[in-house]
Amino acid sequence: MFTLIFAQASPPKPPNVIISLAPLIILFIVIYLISRIINHYKLVMNTKIIRTRLNQLYWYLSKDNEPSGPTLLSELEVNFRATPNTLVCAADGSGQWISISEEINKIKKSPKNPNNESSEKLALIASLLCFFLGYIGFHAFYTGRKTRGTTMFILGVWVVAALILTNLSEIFFAFLVIPLLILILMWLNDMIKLLAGSFLDADDRPVNKWH
After folding, report:
1. CA 207/CA 196 separation, integer angstroms
2. Predicted confidence (pLDDT) at residue 134 exceeds the cutoff of 90
3. Quick one: pLDDT at residue 122?
4. What is the mean pLDDT of the chain?
5. Contact 186, 31 (CB under 8 A)
C-alpha cells in the first residue's frame, strides 16, 4: 500500500531530450545525404558538360588576323596558354569572336549557361508559387530545382505534421521551431531572389522574364 502511494506521489520523469531530438536528427541526416548525393551528381554532370564544350570546334585568329582551324577548344587552350588574348569563335557560328581566356572562363564558371541566357520559366508564375506554396517548394519544382524543392517539401510536411501530432508542451522547440525557422529563411531567400531576378533555375539561368 505504501509503495502504491509513493509511486502515485512521485513526480513524472522529464522527457528524454535525446529521444525527443532523434526524429529531428534523422530528418536532417536524410536531407543532408540526399543533398550530398544530388550535389555529387550535379558535379559529375557539370564536369561532363565542360569536357563536351571544350571538345567543340573553334576558329582562331592567326598572327596575320586570318581565321584558322577549326580546332578543338581544349587544344587551343593548351596551344595559346601563353597568349590568352587570342580571339576564337565557335565553328558552328553560335558565338562571337572573343578571347580564348574569356571563353574558357565562361564555360568553366557556368557550364550549363555560358552565354548568360534567361530562363524560359516565368518569374511571375514562380513568384506566385513561392508566395502561396513556397512552404512546400512548388516554385523550386517549377524551375527544375528538385533538390531544393524536395528539401522544402520535407520541411513543410514535417512542420504541418508537428503541429498536428506533437505534444507541444514537451518538445515544441525540437519538433517545430527549428524546421520552421529553416523553412522561413529558405522561403524569404527565394522570394527576394525571384523579385530581384537573380533566382536561378536548374540550368543556372536567371528567372527574370515576367511575361
Report:
1. 9
2. yes
3. 95
4. 82
5. no
The CA dihedral of 89, 90, 95, 101, to the nearest 10 degrees, is: -60
Buried-state track 75-99, b at ≥16 Cβ within 10 A, e below 16: ebbeebeeeeebbbbbbeeebeeee
Residue at 64: amino acid letter: D
Is the pLDDT confidence value at 12 over 90?
no
Cell of 176: 517545430
In the chain, the domains with their CATH numbers are: 16-50+118-196 (no CATH), 55-109 (3.30.1490)
CB crowding 4-43: b at 16 or more within 10 Å, else e: eeeeeeeeeeeeeeeebeeebeebeeebeeeeeeeeeeee
In DSSP notation, 60-106 reads: EE-TTS-EEEEEEHHHHHHHTSS-TT-EEEETTS-S--EEHHHHHHH
